[in-house]
Design a protein that fits this description.
This protein is α/β, with parallel strands linked by helices. The chain is built from 31 helices and 31 strands. The radius of gyration is 25 Å and the shape is globular. The chain binds ligand MGD (2 copies) and molybdenum atom (MO).
């Protein structure tokens, strides 16, 4: 074992994947006591007759063939298929005040929720309640609101298309577009930025394109942890000689080298496949300048006769080229270098590689989207591809790495606070009511409406709303001002401990479980990052006989709100999901024609993605090369005492769900209270590796927003930036500090100050 100077921190020398991954899966199954069931369950993840892995939204060719190993998918499955139960006895034994003192890990580790519960303020406890009573009381509260916009219908991205469609039907029929969803904290800059660029807010590539790309550019995503099945794609690309360039301020092991647990040679010889051909470490939030620099260098190369631009494509398919060129001409290299943190020669080197590539894919994740300027940055990524005609042909395209396994599908079927007029007209036509036209709240706007007392009811279809959001000082308090909070959930989390005047906790089936309804066993459908839609069928017995499915719970609430005589046959829809799919098809016939037939084919089908066919659904019918708009300049830019904090996922967590306290690839074990810092930034503050430090949010001069007693870990990260784990660090992120075009919080560039622990007042 290597020397450990800071307890729990030691170098991890192995490649990502490999034996470490196999061992971790075994441990996850044991910890959740799922040894037999879980192991069997795993073999059905992403199989033609099995369930869609709840882990991530990376597509899986194996929906038609054999098992593909994925450590973090296995953890997600084991976590859901656990034998632990959070029963009424747990809630009888603990007040909410007592549960509040438990860690996020301990709360979820109580296991699966088993019965519907209602909050009792007198005893500060959740008590069992019947489904009928719960629905009736929720329905009565909703009906009693003065205005439908006083309700917020939040959705996390695991809900199936069927559950999500019914949910938006419930909300719109009720009269509001208040559908804040996890996408507002995640890929909203993609959903907002790409339609202006290429006409659609989705990626343009298919999995097959990765077999034909010469060059893959990876910006701000960590697939070894968050999209592990992508590693086999990257590994295959690397082995056939494609160039992979990584842009990430942190050196992530899986992007350096990876050993496939499915490759007997790599496993036996402890060898690995290199992933990045070159690894560039831009500054935190340096990507916009970096991409502008790349375009500037590309244009210069073209001017030198290098054939670096696809002029024919630019002329035929785009507009805005001249304005973009003018903007780039005005930029100076010293400015680009200062803002990006990379040198002119590094940027020119990348531009040269890019100019030579015949087909390029550009992938990006949260490292790009969770900044004040993210929408505009995403548009620069699209520009970079368009300049060489890299959208809409084999081996090329844009590939946003989506978050939750069905976050993209939820959007497709209408969970959107800014629905298009076409979608609303179709809803009106199919359902015979007038959908509200006023756009609804994003997550940040919903919290602000709750603070002002304007939003009174919160319904959450999954998720951990208050903990995932920025600034708990505001988001927690906002939850407690509600008149009614309803959480549809599989497991207990901190947001559930913040009930409004009335509070309900409604337990639902998970993906892995058999969903038996009046017409028989049901399948649901989901859409992955590459617009593939396919069926998912659970195979485990439900965690408790009292669970209901998400569509059935939504239908139950709807029946209570609209009454038994409602024109929508809610009970009938919940009894047979084919009927829900027929309605989705009726509303979105261009996308879901023959929905029920096509999901019965193993592997499912791909939704039409216009840019893949070089069809641009923009007002001009062309793709737009868009100039960069500098929005939300950093309030503390130029202040040397201020560092930009980026917040990361560890290898042992799923968003706010903390499976364990290790972050193996980053060499952190048994703890999460660490901050990764450049040694120079430590030295300037008289600090060193292993010191206890305090962080404080620069936006709050009162010093109340702090993170105290964390341990500094010296790391190879560009100066001026530091990194800590989400959600521990969310207290340092301002609710007002978000990309104003998309509403996405600046989770990856929060201005903070750092000092020795206890130096803070
Ligand atoms: N096991 C597991 N799987 C998951 C999740 C999970 O928590 N656990 N979450 C799911 C969800 S909802 C999502 S959205 C995705 C998230 O997947 P990712 O997008 O991979 O998520 P993060 O870990 O937040 O950050 C990714 C990377 O961004 C880098 N980064 C930080 N700041 C910057 C920057 O300014 N510029 C650049 N270029 N890079 C930067 C970080 O170093 C990190 O490597 O994964 C999904 N899948
Ligand atoms: N600082 C910081 N904050 C961030 C981020 C960041 O990178 N940094 N990332 C943001 C991103 S990308 C996202 S997507 C959000 C995530 O925000 P959310 O989606 O709201 O959060 P999760 O942690 O995924 O939600 C976990 C809970 O979902 C419930 N759950 C799990 N499975 C199911 C199911 O099948 N059905 C139902 N009904 N409930 C289920 C469980 O009760 C579990 O406790 O967080 C955001 N917050
Ligand atoms: Mo996400």
């Amino acid at each position: 074992m290597s020397k450990e100077e800071t307890p729990g921190v030691r170098p991890y020398k192995s490649p990502a994947g490999g034996w470490g991954a196999l061992k971790a899966v075994g441990q996850a199954l044991v910890d959740q006591a799922t040894v037999v069931e879980g192991g069997r369950t795993l073999l059905h993840a992403n199989q033609p007759d099995g369930f869609d892995c709840p882990g991530c939204a990376w597509p899986d060719p194996k929906h038609t063939s054999s098992f593909e190993f994925c450590e973090n998918g296995a953890k997600a499955v084991a976590w859901e298929a656990t034998s632990k139960r959070a029963t009424p006895e747990l809630f009888a034994a603990n007040t909410l005040a007592e549960l509040w003192t438990w860690s996020d890990h301990a709360l979820e580790d109580t296991g699966r929720l088993t019965e519907p519960m209602v909050y009792d303020r007198a005893s500060d406890r959740y008590l069992p309640v019947s489904w009928e009573t719960a629905f009736a009381q929720i329905g009565a509260e909703l009906r009693a609101l003065d205005h439908p916009d006083q309700a917020e219908f939040y959705a996390s991205g695991r809900a199936s298309n069927e559950a999500a469609f019914l949910y938006q039907l419930l909300g719109r029929k009720f009269g509001t577009n208040n559908f804040p969803d996890c996408s507002n904290m995640c890929h909203e800059p993609t959903s907002v930025g790409l339609p202006d660029s290429i006409g659609v807010g989705k990626g343009s590539v298919t999995l097959e394109d990765f077999d034909h790309a010469d060059l893959i550019l990876c910006f701000g995503h960590n697939p070894g942890t968050n999209h592990p099945r992508m590693m086999s794609t990257l590994r295959e690309a690397s082995r056939r000689g494609a160039t992979i360039l990584v842009f990430n301020p942190m050196r992530e092991r899986a992007l350096e080298r990876f050993a496939s647990p499915q490759d007997p040679v790599e496993m036996a010889t402890l060898s690995a496949t290199p992933i990045a051909s070159q690894y560039y470490q831009p500054r935190i939030k340096g990507d916009a300048a970096l991409v502008q620099g790349l375009m500037k260098a590309l244009i210069a190369l073209d001017g030198e006769g290098a054939d670096a631009l696809d002029h024919a494509f630019i002329a035929e398919h785009t507009q805005g080229y001249e304005a973009l060129v003018l903007q780039l001409a005005d930029l100076t290299w010293p400015d680009i270098e200062a803002r990006s943190g990379l040198s002119r020669s590094q940027i020119e080197e990348v531009a040269t590689i890019y100019a030579r590539s015949k087909a390029t894919i550009l992938c990006y994740g949260m490292g790009l989207t969770q900044h004040r300027n993210a929408t505009s940055t995403v548009q620069q990524l699209a520009n970079l591809l368009l300049l060489r005609g890299n959208i809409g042909r084999p081996g090329a395209g844009i590939c946003p790495l989506r978050g939750h396994s069905n976050v993209q599908g939820d959007r497709t079927v209408g969970v959107w606070e800014k629905p298009s007029e076409a979608f609303l007209e179709a809803m009106d036509r199919v359902f015979g009511f007038k959908s509200p036209r006023k756009h609804g709240h994003t997550v940040v706007e919903a919290i602000m409406a709750m603070e002002r007392g304007e939003a009174k009811t919160f319904i959450g279809l999954g998720g951990n709303f208050a903990v995932a959001a920025p600034d708990p000082a505001r988001s927690f308090a906002a939850m407690q001002k509600l008149e009614l909070s309803v959480h549809i959930a599989t497991k207990l989390n901190r947001t559930h401990l913040l009930p409004g005047r009335q509070g309900f906790l409604l337990p639902c089936l998970g993906r892995t479980e058999i969903d038996q309804q009046a017409s028989g066993r049901q399948a649901v459908t989901v859409e992955d990052s590459m617009s593939m839609v396919h069926a998912s069928r659970g195979l485990n017995p439900p965690a408790s006989p009292h669970l209901m499915s998400e569509p059935a719970i939504v239908a139950g609430i709807a029946k209570a709100v609209f009454g038994e005589d409602d024109t929508t046959d809610w009970a009938g829809l919940a009894a047979d999901y084919d009927r829900i799919r027929d309605l989705i098809e009726a509303v979105l016939p261009d996308q879901f024609a023959d929905y029920n037939q096509r999901i019965r084919v193993p592997g499912g089908f791909r939704l039409p993605v216009a840019p893949s066919e070089r069809v641009w659904k923009t007002p001009s019918g062309r793709a737009n090369l868009l100039a960069y708009v500098e929005v939300g300049e950093d309030a503390h830019a130029g202040d040397p005492s201020v560092l930009l904090l980026t917040t990361l996922r560890s290898h042992d967590q799923y968003n706010t769900t903390i499976y364990g306290n290790d972050d193996r690839y980053r060499g952190v074990f048994g703890r999460r209270d660490v901050v990764f810092v450049n040694p120079g930034d430590l030295a300037e503050r008289g600090l060193k590796d292993g010191d206890l430090i305090d962080l404080s949010a620069a936006f709050d001069p009162s010093g109340r927003r702090t993170l105290r007693g964390f341990t500094a870990v010296a790391r190879d990260i560009p100066k001026g930036g530091i990194a800590a784990y989400y959600p521990e660090a969310n207290g340092l992120i301002g609710l007002d500090d978000h990309d104003h075009r998309s509403g996405t919080p600046a989770y990856k560039s929060a201005p903070v100050r750092m000092c020795a622990a206890a130096d803070l007042p």
